[in-house]
Amino acid sequence: MDFTVDLEGRVAVVTGAGGGIGRAVAMQLASSGADVAVTDTHQRVEPLCELAAEISQMGRKSIASTADVTDRTDIDHLIGDVLNAFGAVDLLVNVAGVYLTDPIMEYSESAWDKTMAVNLKGPFLTCQAFSKVMCEQRQGNIINIASDSAIDVAEGDGPYASSKSALVTLTRHIAREMGEHNIRANVIAPGWVKTDMTSFVWSDPHLLEEAEAGVPLGFLAEPEDIGNVVLFLASGASRYVNGQLIVANGGRV
After folding, report:
1. Helix/strand/coil (H/E/C) assignment for every residue in 7-67
2. How large is the average pLDDT for residues 99-127?
3. pLDDT of res. 154
Protein backbone atom coordinates (compact mmCIF):
# COMPACT_ATOMS: atom_id res chain seq x y z
CA MET A 1 0.00 0.00 0.00
CA ASP A 2 1.37 3.41 -0.97
CA PHE A 3 1.30 6.47 1.24
CA THR A 4 2.52 10.01 0.86
CA VAL A 5 4.16 12.60 3.09
CA ASP A 6 4.52 16.34 2.65
CA LEU A 7 7.83 17.12 0.93
CA GLU A 8 6.67 20.37 -0.61
CA GLY A 9 9.63 22.68 -1.27
CA ARG A 10 12.24 19.93 -0.86
CA VAL A 11 14.85 19.09 -3.49
CA ALA A 12 15.84 15.44 -3.89
CA VAL A 13 18.57 13.75 -5.92
CA VAL A 14 18.11 10.07 -6.81
CA THR A 15 20.91 7.99 -8.31
CA GLY A 16 20.16 4.83 -10.29
CA ALA A 17 16.85 6.39 -11.28
CA GLY A 18 16.71 4.88 -14.76
CA GLY A 19 14.65 1.93 -13.56
CA GLY A 20 13.67 -0.34 -10.68
CA ILE A 21 13.82 1.01 -7.14
CA GLY A 22 15.41 4.29 -8.24
CA ARG A 23 12.60 5.13 -10.63
CA ALA A 24 9.94 4.24 -8.07
CA VAL A 25 11.64 6.35 -5.40
CA ALA A 26 11.87 9.37 -7.71
CA MET A 27 8.18 9.11 -8.62
CA GLN A 28 7.11 8.70 -5.00
CA LEU A 29 9.17 11.67 -3.85
CA ALA A 30 7.65 13.78 -6.60
CA SER A 31 4.16 12.58 -5.70
CA SER A 32 4.87 13.77 -2.16
CA GLY A 33 5.72 17.27 -3.39
CA ALA A 34 9.49 17.18 -3.88
CA ASP A 35 11.35 18.53 -6.88
CA VAL A 36 13.61 15.76 -8.12
CA ALA A 37 16.92 15.53 -9.97
CA VAL A 38 17.31 12.05 -11.44
CA THR A 39 20.60 10.55 -12.51
CA ASP A 40 21.90 7.31 -13.95
CA THR A 41 24.63 6.13 -16.30
CA HIS A 42 25.13 7.64 -19.74
CA GLN A 43 23.75 4.40 -21.22
CA ARG A 44 20.35 5.01 -19.61
CA VAL A 45 19.79 8.57 -20.79
CA GLU A 46 16.52 7.78 -22.60
CA PRO A 47 14.57 6.27 -19.65
CA LEU A 48 16.08 8.97 -17.43
CA CYS A 49 14.78 11.79 -19.63
CA GLU A 50 11.39 10.09 -19.86
CA LEU A 51 11.25 9.93 -16.06
CA ALA A 52 12.12 13.62 -15.69
CA ALA A 53 9.42 14.50 -18.21
CA GLU A 54 6.88 12.38 -16.34
CA ILE A 55 7.73 14.11 -13.06
CA SER A 56 7.43 17.51 -14.73
CA GLN A 57 3.97 16.57 -15.97
CA MET A 58 3.03 16.01 -12.32
CA GLY A 59 3.70 19.69 -11.68
CA ARG A 60 7.08 19.17 -10.02
CA LYS A 61 10.39 20.51 -11.25
CA SER A 62 12.77 17.82 -12.49
CA ILE A 63 16.03 17.48 -14.38
CA ALA A 64 17.81 14.45 -15.82
CA SER A 65 21.60 14.49 -15.50
CA THR A 66 23.63 11.46 -16.51
CA ALA A 67 26.62 10.58 -14.37
CA ASP A 68 28.98 7.73 -13.63
CA VAL A 69 28.85 7.68 -9.83
CA THR A 70 32.35 6.21 -9.70
CA ASP A 71 33.78 9.27 -11.45
CA ARG A 72 34.42 12.35 -9.30
CA THR A 73 34.32 14.66 -12.33
CA ASP A 74 30.87 13.36 -13.25
CA ILE A 75 29.70 13.88 -9.68
CA ASP A 76 30.96 17.47 -9.75
CA HIS A 77 29.03 18.05 -12.96
CA LEU A 78 25.93 16.50 -11.38
CA ILE A 79 26.15 18.83 -8.38
CA GLY A 80 26.54 21.77 -10.74
CA ASP A 81 23.43 20.76 -12.66
CA VAL A 82 21.43 20.32 -9.45
CA LEU A 83 22.47 23.65 -7.94
CA ASN A 84 21.93 25.49 -11.22
CA ALA A 85 18.43 24.08 -11.48
CA PHE A 86 17.31 24.18 -7.84
CA GLY A 87 19.84 26.22 -5.85
CA ALA A 88 19.92 23.65 -3.04
CA VAL A 89 19.62 19.95 -2.24
CA ASP A 90 17.77 18.56 0.76
CA LEU A 91 17.81 14.82 0.11
CA LEU A 92 20.24 12.40 -1.53
CA VAL A 93 19.04 8.85 -2.22
CA ASN A 94 21.77 6.50 -3.45
CA VAL A 95 20.12 3.64 -5.32
CA ALA A 96 22.68 2.96 -8.08
CA GLY A 97 24.19 -0.50 -7.77
CA VAL A 98 25.24 -3.67 -9.55
CA TYR A 99 24.57 -7.30 -8.66
CA LEU A 100 27.33 -9.59 -9.90
CA THR A 101 27.42 -13.08 -8.40
CA ASP A 102 29.79 -16.02 -8.50
CA PRO A 103 31.47 -18.27 -5.96
CA ILE A 104 34.53 -16.64 -4.37
CA MET A 105 36.94 -18.99 -6.13
CA GLU A 106 35.47 -18.03 -9.51
CA TYR A 107 34.89 -14.32 -8.97
CA SER A 108 37.00 -12.30 -11.38
CA GLU A 109 39.08 -9.34 -10.33
CA SER A 110 37.26 -7.13 -12.83
CA ALA A 111 33.88 -8.15 -11.37
CA TRP A 112 35.19 -7.40 -7.87
CA ASP A 113 36.45 -3.99 -8.94
CA LYS A 114 33.16 -3.09 -10.62
CA THR A 115 31.10 -4.26 -7.66
CA MET A 116 33.14 -2.25 -5.18
CA ALA A 117 33.30 0.78 -7.47
CA VAL A 118 29.56 1.09 -8.09
CA ASN A 119 28.21 -0.20 -4.77
CA LEU A 120 30.69 1.43 -2.41
CA LYS A 121 32.92 4.02 -4.09
CA GLY A 122 29.91 5.57 -5.85
CA PRO A 123 27.94 6.24 -2.64
CA PHE A 124 31.15 7.43 -0.96
CA LEU A 125 31.78 10.01 -3.69
CA THR A 126 28.18 11.22 -3.87
CA CYS A 127 27.80 11.39 -0.08
CA GLN A 128 31.08 13.23 0.28
CA ALA A 129 30.28 15.73 -2.46
CA PHE A 130 26.67 16.43 -1.50
CA SER A 131 27.53 16.56 2.21
CA LYS A 132 29.67 19.62 1.49
CA VAL A 133 26.64 21.37 0.00
CA MET A 134 24.44 20.21 2.88
CA CYS A 135 26.97 21.46 5.45
CA GLU A 136 26.79 24.93 3.92
CA GLN A 137 23.00 24.75 4.17
CA ARG A 138 23.19 23.42 7.75
CA GLN A 139 20.71 20.68 6.91
CA GLY A 140 20.40 17.58 4.76
CA ASN A 141 19.30 13.97 4.58
CA ILE A 142 21.11 11.00 3.04
CA ILE A 143 19.50 7.62 2.37
CA ASN A 144 21.62 4.78 1.00
CA ILE A 145 20.20 1.57 -0.44
CA ALA A 146 22.14 -1.54 0.58
CA SER A 147 20.76 -5.11 0.66
CA ASP A 148 19.83 -7.71 3.23
CA SER A 149 22.83 -9.59 1.80
CA ALA A 150 24.78 -7.28 4.11
CA ILE A 151 23.51 -9.30 7.07
CA ASP A 152 22.95 -12.67 5.39
CA VAL A 153 25.26 -15.26 3.87
CA ALA A 154 24.23 -16.74 0.53
CA GLU A 155 26.32 -18.73 -1.91
CA GLY A 156 27.73 -16.57 -4.70
CA ASP A 157 26.92 -13.30 -2.93
CA GLY A 158 30.26 -12.79 -1.16
CA PRO A 159 31.68 -9.75 -2.98
CA TYR A 160 28.24 -8.16 -3.47
CA ALA A 161 27.41 -8.72 0.20
CA SER A 162 30.80 -7.33 1.19
CA SER A 163 30.16 -4.12 -0.75
CA LYS A 164 26.75 -3.70 0.87
CA SER A 165 28.07 -4.47 4.37
CA ALA A 166 30.70 -1.80 3.85
CA LEU A 167 27.99 0.63 2.69
CA VAL A 168 26.10 0.06 5.94
CA THR A 169 29.25 0.89 7.93
CA LEU A 170 30.02 3.92 5.75
CA THR A 171 26.50 5.26 6.31
CA ARG A 172 26.86 4.94 10.07
CA HIS A 173 30.14 6.87 9.97
CA ILE A 174 28.54 9.61 7.87
CA ALA A 175 25.72 9.86 10.39
CA ARG A 176 28.23 10.08 13.22
CA GLU A 177 30.30 12.81 11.60
CA MET A 178 27.56 14.84 9.92
CA GLY A 179 25.03 14.97 12.75
CA GLU A 180 26.54 18.16 14.15
CA HIS A 181 25.77 19.81 10.80
CA ASN A 182 22.10 18.77 11.03
CA ILE A 183 22.57 16.08 8.40
CA ARG A 184 21.04 12.65 8.89
CA ALA A 185 22.18 9.45 7.14
CA ASN A 186 20.41 6.10 7.15
CA VAL A 187 20.55 2.93 5.10
CA ILE A 188 17.84 0.58 3.84
CA ALA A 189 18.49 -3.12 3.23
CA PRO A 190 15.87 -4.54 0.85
CA GLY A 191 15.36 -8.25 0.31
CA TRP A 192 13.96 -9.61 -2.92
CA VAL A 193 12.43 -6.79 -4.98
CA LYS A 194 10.84 -7.23 -8.39
CA THR A 195 13.21 -5.25 -10.61
CA ASP A 196 15.11 -5.97 -13.81
CA MET A 197 18.12 -6.88 -11.68
CA THR A 198 16.22 -9.76 -10.06
CA SER A 199 14.09 -10.80 -13.04
CA PHE A 200 16.01 -14.08 -13.26
CA VAL A 201 14.19 -15.06 -10.07
CA TRP A 202 10.65 -13.71 -10.37
CA SER A 203 10.31 -14.50 -14.08
CA ASP A 204 10.99 -18.19 -13.41
CA PRO A 205 7.96 -19.85 -11.72
CA HIS A 206 10.09 -22.41 -9.89
CA LEU A 207 12.61 -19.87 -8.60
CA LEU A 208 9.82 -17.44 -7.71
CA GLU A 209 8.04 -20.10 -5.66
CA GLU A 210 11.29 -20.94 -3.91
CA ALA A 211 12.04 -17.27 -3.18
CA GLU A 212 8.53 -16.58 -1.86
CA ALA A 213 8.73 -19.65 0.36
CA GLY A 214 11.72 -18.07 2.08
CA VAL A 215 9.82 -14.87 2.90
CA PRO A 216 7.53 -15.13 5.95
CA LEU A 217 5.09 -12.65 4.36
CA GLY A 218 4.95 -14.92 1.30
CA PHE A 219 5.64 -12.43 -1.50
CA LEU A 220 8.42 -10.40 -3.08
CA ALA A 221 8.47 -6.64 -2.71
CA GLU A 222 7.55 -4.17 -5.42
CA PRO A 223 9.94 -1.22 -5.88
CA GLU A 224 7.32 1.04 -4.30
CA ASP A 225 7.55 -0.95 -1.06
CA ILE A 226 11.13 0.21 -0.69
CA GLY A 227 10.13 3.68 -1.83
CA ASN A 228 7.70 3.86 1.08
CA VAL A 229 10.59 3.30 3.51
CA VAL A 230 12.47 6.10 1.74
CA LEU A 231 9.44 8.36 2.20
CA PHE A 232 9.45 7.69 5.93
CA LEU A 233 13.16 8.49 6.21
CA ALA A 234 12.68 11.59 4.05
CA SER A 235 9.88 12.89 6.23
CA GLY A 236 9.83 14.77 9.50
CA ALA A 237 8.43 11.65 11.15
CA SER A 238 11.97 10.24 11.18
CA ARG A 239 13.74 13.38 12.39
CA TYR A 240 15.40 11.48 15.27
CA VAL A 241 16.35 8.45 13.18
CA ASN A 242 20.04 8.67 12.31
CA GLY A 243 22.74 6.11 11.50
CA GLN A 244 20.23 3.28 11.33
CA LEU A 245 19.87 0.19 9.16
CA ILE A 246 16.27 -0.56 8.23
CA VAL A 247 15.79 -4.04 6.83
CA ALA A 248 12.82 -4.31 4.45
CA ASN A 249 12.66 -7.94 3.36
CA GLY A 250 9.38 -9.35 4.60
CA GLY A 251 11.13 -11.06 7.50
CA ARG A 252 13.44 -13.20 5.32
CA VAL A 253 16.49 -12.69 7.56
Report:
1. CCCCEEEEECCCCHHHHHHHHHHHHCCCEEEEECCHHHHHHHHHHHHHHHHCCCCEEECCC
2. 96
3. 83
The pLDDT assigned to 242 comes to: 98
- According to DSSP, residue 143 is labeled E
What are the helix (H) ranges across the chain? Answer: 20-31, 45-57, 72-86, 109-116, 122-137, 158-178, 199-202, 205-213, 223-234
pTM: 0.96
The one catalytic residue in 99, 107, 160, 240 is 160
In tens, the pLDDT along 12-37 reads 999 999 999 999 999 999 999 999 99
Coil, helix or strand at residue 83? helix
Is the predicted pLDDT of residue 2 greater than 60, yes or no? Answer: no
Under DSSP, is residue 76 helix (H, G, I), strand (E, B) or coil?
Answer: helix
- Element holding 248 (H helix, E strand): strand 245-248
Rounded to whole angstroms, how far apart are CA atoms 198 and 193? Answer: 7
92 SS3 class: strand
Is residue 246 helix, strand or coil? Answer: strand
- State whether residue 144 is helix, strand or coil: strand
Active site residue 160: yes
